[in-house]
Amino acid sequence: MAGMTTEERSEPAVTAAERPMLEGWLDYHRDTLGLKCVGLTDAQLRQASVPPSQLSLLGLVRHMAEVERHWFRNVMADEGSKPLYYTDEDEDGDFHPTDADTWEKDGAVWRAEVEAAREIAARHGLDDLSAGRSSRGEQFNLRWIYTHMIEEYARHNGHADLVRERIDGATGD
Known about the structure:
Low-confidence stretches: 1-6
CATH topology: Four Helix Bundle (Hemerythrin (Met), subunit A)
Number of helices: 5
Radius of gyration: 16 Å
Oligomer: single chain
Number of strands: 0
Order of helices and strands: HHHHH
CATH superfamily: dinb family like domain
Strand content: under 5%
Number of domains: 1
CATH architecture: Up-down Bundle
């Protein structure tokens, strides 16, 4: 069965300072994606349930592992980490889980990327610029990366809502 580490999530503080507010919202959205996977089998998690889209919950988890890795390891820290799931031959490989892909394996990878992201972010202030650069040579401050990550999770959590409802009717925040 799936789930990040808990079947609950904490509401972000409504009066926090900027950094705890950003981190609270990012963790809230990370937990939301995990909650969308709770109670489903690997086959259900791999199910592309809104044809013709190939989007699945496991694909979303794999995608967010790639996104965490990209923005924190490769942009903020400039580690040069290789992609986890996509290749030149399949640029959307994160969205294409096979029967061999499982929550146990891919969920663990996602959780590890979240933990690495937290560790990297803890070493930086919100105004610190990334060591890595965009293809246009831009650097990003941590504040921008946090804001982008919140947006990325929020958008994909909307997709996860629809996919989960189509699988078993479950709805929720």
